[in-house]
Amino acid sequence: MKAKIFSLFIVGIALFSSCTAQSGRYQNVSVDQLKEKLSDDIIVLDVRTPGEVAQGVIGDPKIIDFNGGEFLEAAKKLPKDKPIYVYCAVGGRSSSAAGMLAKEGFSNIYNVEGGIQAWQKKGFPLSKK
Fold this sequence. Notes:
Layout: H1 2-23, E1 27-29, H2 31-37, E2 43-46, H3 50-53, E3 62-63, H4 71-75, E4 84-87, H5 92-103, E5 109-112, H6 115-121
């Protein structure tokens, strides 16, 4: 009897986890993949602080500071019908931001792994905002 209850418990957890993961999906991409897409009709979203942004940006991004306190409200105003490539310094904040956007119903969300540091390591150019 204990084995059956335990098995049902495990199945329940698996089903719950599966449903939860489905509602907040985004895809990780490399800086090379972002570079290939820059000429396409996409949104590049920089979620770094103003001080970080002042050091240079990738392309011509929308800028919404993830730590600024109003990230989600500002991000909800982005078009939901375009792919959004999110980056930060190394990938932590952008991953969190991508997950939040996916949970809000954005369907084409891409987290740029390694962030702007990976971009610079490849020798790709930065722009000034």
